[in-house]
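Teaching assistant here, posting this on the class forum so everyone can see the example we discussed in section. The complex has two components, and the goal was to see what a joint structure prediction looks like when all of them are supplied at once.
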Amino acid sequence: MTALPKILIALLLICAGLPVASAANAPADDVAVKELANGLRVIVKTDRRAPVAVNMVWYRIGSVDEQGGITGVAHVLEHMMFKGTKAVPAGEFSRLIAAAGGRDNAFTSRDYTGYFQTLHKSALPLSFRLEADRMANLVLSPEEFAKEIKVVMEERRWRTDDRPQSVMYERLLATALTAHPYRNPVIGWMNDLENLTIGDTRRFYEQWYSPNNAIVVVVGDVVPAEVFALAEQHFGPIPSKALPSRKPQDEPPQLGLKRLTVKVPAEQAQVLMAYRTPRLTKPKEEWEPYALDVLESVLSGNAAARLPQRLVKTERLAAAAGASYEGVGRGPGFFYLSGTPAQGKSAAEMEQGLRREVQRVIEEGVTQQELERVKAQAIAGQVYQRDSMFFQARQIGWLETVGLSYRDDNLFIEKLQQVTPEQVREVARKYLVDDGLTVAYLDPQPLNAAPARTAPPAGVRHGN
Amino acid sequence: MATEMKMKPMIRTLCAFALLAVAQLAHAILPIEHWRTSSGAKVYFVENRGLPILDVSVEVPAGSAFDTPEKSGLAAMTNGLMRLGAAGMNEDEIARALADVGAQMSNRFDSDRGGLILRTLSDPKRRNQALAVMAGVLSAPEFSAPVIEREKTRYISALKEADLTPDTQASREFNRLVFGKHPYSLRSSGEVDAVSRLHSDDLKVFHRRHYAAAQAVVAIMGDVTRKEAEAIAEQLTRALPQSGGQRLSIPEVQSLPAAVTRMVEHPASQSHIMIGAPGIRRDDPDFFTLFLGNYILGGGGFVSRITEEVRQKRGLAYSAYSNFLPLLARGPFVIGMQTRRDQAGQALAVVRSTLREFIDKGPTPEEVVAAKQNIVGGFPMRIDSNRKIHDFLALIGFYDLPVDYLETFVANIERVTAADIKATFARRVDPDRLVTVVVGADRNQTAAATR
């Protein structure tokens, strides 16, 4: 439950020893909130270090809200949001932002979809006008859709299909979960993308894109009252909608260990283990998610943490090893362990090594010193995060869209400080158990083409 | 994959330029102080008391351009392994001493530069502990044989994994063809054979020669006074090796004699395409013109011509871009994209005709106006954090850019005309002398496009 969503669990395989992302943020007293009559929530955080503003519009809609057969539609819609309204034709959005000196982009996750512009504070009205326009007036032309769906399929090939670790992660989740839609990749299954229609996309837009399903977050050198007035002016006239009911689609209890093998062209074997864990829902009352967060850091929060120290350096069993806890979200939580076996070691040996470290935590617990280190890193991370307006805005939007509050940010660091060694041991004992575990092995296959680099045949090396 | 970030090419390709742009505005707004330490290192400093954070880096000419084919990877391993035992501390003690105060120490490593970057809380207790570790790691790395043997095995296993991927294969081949015998042709992480031959003594010698005080640039940004910054710079450079005098240099890059096209088989679902040639030096007089022109051609994300033609109009790729990477010697000019393998030929044809048209006719006056609006109007975003300003200080110091560069940069950007861009691209980018690499090609597809 570190501050930023884990972008790619597989990264841990090569970057064991990542610093702990901060668990909290700046004091929340420089934050102002207003809810418009149409249900739009506007959150403004003042940061006067530069004449800059970040504007983010977050929708509480992600791949978790997709039905079978249309996986990927939330993300496809995110792409289509750049494809024009009546007032602002396709491509014009980015041109206007660029001409104002700004940068814009968007992101889709399981739980939310977000759009952002970073610009000079004087350009904030432009940003609001454009975002309000596409919240209500998207055109969704079949011609643009036909091209953009091809772009998204290219994105899928690039992001997942040709990357062994991404494929393994995708298949692991699809195996670990039986019912909950977290089992589907955010980008969508290729066959669903191939059969997705403009109608599917339009239906999703019409159902879910509305002010009462959105949050505007502004961080920068701004005056909250002026931002609220601007929001009223641009977003205020958009009517709210009755949102469809969200089915919980709760995952039934896992009834025993699951295993899968992923055979893809690669050089190295990999092991990825996912334990079902609780997620954070009541940040004041709960303690287990914080203890799991601490456990993640004890195992791989710095280069001398347990997994790199023991498995990589001392035992030389792994080329890399890491842990990662995903405990904030609308769906099930997971605690991941990952490892790349060292040359000459097998995936099974790697798995045993990871399990030994889990067992050691259960039997021996963790030291006070390890806990102090984790807390020191979290406190520092909280300060470092204030150096980036983008991260501050992202943190606020993220918490608000997964069912928590931006205020919880400060709570996180307090609760983290209260975690005891015995609690860390307790969550390991309770949740890092086989009945809630799914284990994936990446079984490396040779490239099926002949030698990777062919000798240039006569005639290939020539001018053109 | 919790998040799908739709990364526009701009973010990646403008990176090198963004740092330079930071330089420009920073001077107008930020008082950059600079001096030399008693050991001869150059220091660049900006005081900023807004946050209790200190960012400090020490960088030297120790990038992969200082490798040889026989020992490629030496520069990278030296840089990466310094922290695995130094000044009497073992690797775990180093990592713990940093973590205990919440400090983060990362590596700077590219074709030209090697170094360390520290971010720490600025209170004296924490910062002193972190700085002491950094000073020890920079000055007295041990490069013990057992650690090196272990890390070599890890490096080699990572190299072998990377060697199978289409993007690694494409960039290796591209650099080899663009740079020939020049050291920029070497893979920065080294090759398997070369890395397996490296020995502890190689790293020690490389460190002694390259991590020398007289070569070093110290950049300090944040919550300390000038006096404290002076003491920090002394502390970090005092014990560095004292070799040197003449600055280490990189040979000139030769232009391509002729076009070269190389197809590489690979089973990936996408073809990885790279087109390019030697580009520009960091101090190139054409820099501003090419920078602005490239924004229009393929550096400006969704608003660039390449993205418009390849992605927006035809849906051929998720990412398509062009970029100049200015270095000590001429770094690469590159156009890159990935597309479904059976349409590689079409994508190649589109991007080539886009480039040719740009070179033949130049940009429109409207495109030039829009590009200037973005680059000039976007300056504040390039210095809106301590980290960005710190990166800029390090860049200015390493590449000897004038400290009063902002005004000239803005003026130089605004002075560029459509006619300048047309004339300069015609002089600097020859569409008939480019390297083209396609990895994962269906041969019949690309064959048509290469004729």
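For the discussion questions: DSSP finds 16 helices and eleven strands in chain A. The CA atoms of residues 123 and 268 of chain A lie 49 Å apart. Think about how each of these relates to the inputs above.
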